[in-house]
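REQUEST ID: PR-0412
SUBMITTED BY: lab tech R.K.
PRIORITY: routine
TASK: structure prediction, single protein chain
INPUT:
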Amino acid sequence: MAVTRKLANGIGAIACAACMAYALFAQYVLGLEPCPLCVLQRVAMIALGLVFVAAFLHDPGRIGARIYAVLLFLVAALGGSIAARHVWLQNLPPSEVPDCGPGLEYMLNSFPLGESLNMILSGSGECADVVWSFLGFSMPAWVFVSFVFLGVAGFLSNLHLSRAGEK
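STATUS: complete
OUTPUT:
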């Protein structure tokens, strides 16, 4: 069985769904409340998954596959940037960690969207806490790795793999 773009996009969509499933498991079973930056990373992961699903269902020709390759790369780069910012905040010296800010719901209800996003990306003390790690890496670090892997894999598979029956 040859690996096609459609199969690669389906696997990418499943990987995004698995990442989200673990995020929800961590929240509802392990009791880890997501900070505002975590929520933005989840939104980016869902967006990446939706682009993979669209590419899977559409199964485009070469030009469409190139468009999906760029879209996948851009969404993954955005999500990876948010995760990288989160990792940076977690590695600040304690004296440089920003104070805890208002909750995400309060920010979104009280401020314009642009100002809310600016406040979220600035980070807060709660975003700097490392409450989970695996093999020495925090959850945002693993999310960063996931975005890099999925972005590169989605980009390359849509550029270089062929459609079923295509040469």
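NOTES: Helices lie at 5-28, 36-58, 62-90, 104-110, 113-122, 125-128, 139-160.
REVIEWED BY: pending
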